[in-house]
Amino acid sequence: MTKRDKQDVGQRLLARFRATGAEEVAPDILLPAESLLDLYGEDLRARAYVTADPIRGEMMLRPDFTVPVVQAHMRTGAEPARYCYLGEIFRKQDMGDTRPETPRDHEYLQCGFELFSRDPAADAEVFALFHEALAPLDLQAETGDMGLLLDAVAGLPLTQARACALSHHIWRPGRFARLLARFSRPAVARAFPDSTAPWAGMRSEDEMIRRIARLQADAAVPPLSPVWTERLERLFALRAPASDALPALVELARDMPAIAPAVDRIHARMDAIAARGIDLGAVIFDASHGRTTLEYYDGFTFTFHADRTLPGRATWPPVASGGRYDALTRVLGRGREIPAVGGIIRPGLVAELEASA
């Protein structure tokens, strides 16, 4: 598969997005590293190409389109607004196919669409747009909602500190599970004997005293009842065709009232998707969908997957993915915010699927 083949597919997808009235944009390839690291954390360094500029400071080869698009929109954009783009992104580590003849794990094309709108039907519009663009490829569509999981954690009978800790790690399932297990058993009190030795380390004496006080206060918190862990695990394990998932979500909401508003939102979204002619029975709803993606998704999430059981496709990433990132607009808008949802397609994978059809 040549670069020209991938570009041709990308241009075709881009034209489809432009036909919706989207403005084509081209964010810089070299971006300031500071804002990206603030959003993603220092872990991004392991996946991105970072360099030092003597004038501009630390810079990063573009690892993502959404952040620079949101930054530009929040500075000068009106609402509602639609944007589309096509270009390369650069990452050291990727879940893509790493065969020598398809080295897309370090540099690959993305074609994307972003919608800034307060219309409640925006999620369904974006999903339907991607569904229609990819329909000839017979992909498996999956959806989820990170807001559902965040509401579930917020509704647990925990101290604010413990709930915040769980929410912070919800995108890291392993760390989340270990933390939940610790909060579900009696805390072990730690002794901090008085000492006349001088304080040492990077933290100040005041910081250490506050840290010790938090640890001592946390040790007195009773463990989370097993019934809540069981309910949370039932929620995280829910995976079914969207038409079947709704009754299960309604039943879970009876035991977890905090998720009821999110269940109502999901119900309305599914109705809106169905109203666009999409069979909900062919769309998978996975309650844990989005837990291993970029942390700026805080609501609706979706992916489109090729059949990974076929030869050579076991390690393929999603052909397309996206979701809602309202909180990101608030962070980058310095207090101003607007609901936003978008997604990307990998033209290289589309080109390979079309060539093998």
Automatic annotation (TrEMBL):
GO CC annotation: cytoplasm
Signal peptide bounds: none
Keyword match Methyltransferase: no
GO molecular function, one term: glycosyltransferase activity
Domain Class II Histidinyl-tRNA synthetase (HisRS)-like catalytic core: 6-168, 224-342
Pfam families, alphabetized: tRNA-synt_His
Glycosyltransferase recorded as keyword: yes
Positions contributing to L-histidine binding: D64, F65, T66, R91, Q110, E114, R291, Y296, Y297
Keywords assigned: Glycosyltransferase, Transferase
PANTHER family, sorted: HISTIDINE--TRNA LIGASE, HISTIDYL-TRNA SYNTHETASE
Protein name: ATP phosphoribosyltransferase regulatory subunit
